[in-house]
Amino acid sequence: MEISANLPGDIVSDIFTRLPVKSLCRFKCVSKSMYTMLHSPNFIKKHTNRAIQKDPSMILRTEFRLYAAEEDEEHSKVRKLQVPFARSLEKIGISGSCNGLLCISDQRHDEDIYIYNPSTRVYRKLPVPEFDIPTNIDSTFFTSLGFGFHQNDYKLVRSLYLYDKPLEDIDSYKCEARMYSFSTSKWRKIGGIPFHIRSRVAIMVHSNFVWTASRGLGTGMSIHVVAFDLDREEFWEVPRPEIAITRQCQIEVGVFEGRFSIYYMWKNDRVEIWTMEEFGVKQSWKKQFVIGPNLSLDDGFLYLKPLLVMRKGKILIEQGEGELILYDPRSETATNFKIRAAPRWFRVTSFVGSLVSPFHNQ
C-alpha cells in the first residue's frame, strides 16, 4: 500500500494510529488507499489499543444531552455532542462504554437500546429482546444492562424482572436474562439471576459483568455483588471483604487501576476503596485508601466514585451529580475540579475516542 511516496505504508499506518479520530476522519477523503487503511480492522484495533493506553476522556450526561470533556489537571471545557436519535428518547441513559462505543438506552422506558460512536457519529438501534411474560404477572421491570467486548465480539446482557405480586414484596419475582451478540445480531436466553440487581449499569472486569445486588427487604435485606461470567455464561456471587453492611453504609462497584474494586461509603463519615488483586479470590482483597470525613456531604452520605488516575498519582473522583474533585492520596487532600461551561447537574462516563463501528462483525 503506497500512501506516501517517501514513507513505507507500515510506518504511515503506525503514525496514524497515534492521531485523534477527528483528524483521521478528515483523511478518509484524501485517497482510496487512505480510506482503505482507516477502515482496516487491523488499523482500527491498533488505534483503539493506543487510545486505551492514554488517559481517557469524559462524557458528561444530563437527562437530555451529552457533552465531551477533555481532562487534565487544569480547568477543562466541554462541547456538546450530537445524538442523532435523541428525540426518540425521553431521558438519555448511558448503560456502558467500551472501546469508543456508548450503549445508550431510555432511562424511563428501558426498551430501546442504541450503540453509538460519538466520534464518528455512527449508530445502530438494537432489536428489542423478547421475554416470556405469563398472563398472571402484575408488573415488569427492566433493571440492568451490561455492555462489553469479549472474544472479538461486542456483547450486551439485559435482565427483566416479572412480579406476580405488588412491588412492595421485592422477593416475589422471577428474573429472566438475555444476551445480545454483535456477531449474530440476535438475543438469546441465558437464564435467570438469583438476586435483585440494584445497579442499572454493570462494570466489566476479566470477562465478567458485575453489579451490586440484594436479597430480602427492609431489615432483612442483604447486600451482595453478583457477576455474569461471559466464558461460562453463568451468574455467580463475587465474595466481598469481611465488612458488615448496615443502613449506615452503601457500596458501589468499579474498576480502579485495572482491578475490580468496591467503594464502601459510610454515612457522615468516610469512603474506603478496596481492590481485588486476584479477581474472584476473597483473600486477595486489599484496602487502598480512605477518604473523609472532612469532605462536604450529599444527603448525609459521602458519595465518591473514582473515575481515573491522573498525572502525579492524583485521582479524579465524581462526588454526587455535577461535582468533581481531584484527590491526592499522599497528602490526603482534595481540591475541586472545574469544567468550564459544564451543565449544573451531570453524571460522568469514562470514554476513549475510536473508529470502532457499531456494526462490528457484520
UniProtKB/TrEMBL annotation:
Residues in the signal sequence: none
F-box domain sequence ranges: 1-47
Alphabetical list of Pfam families matching this protein: F-box (PF00646), FBA_1 (PF07734)
Record-linked NCBIfam families: F_box_assoc_1
Protein name according to UniProt: F-box domain-containing protein
Species whose genome carries this gene: Dipteronia sinensis
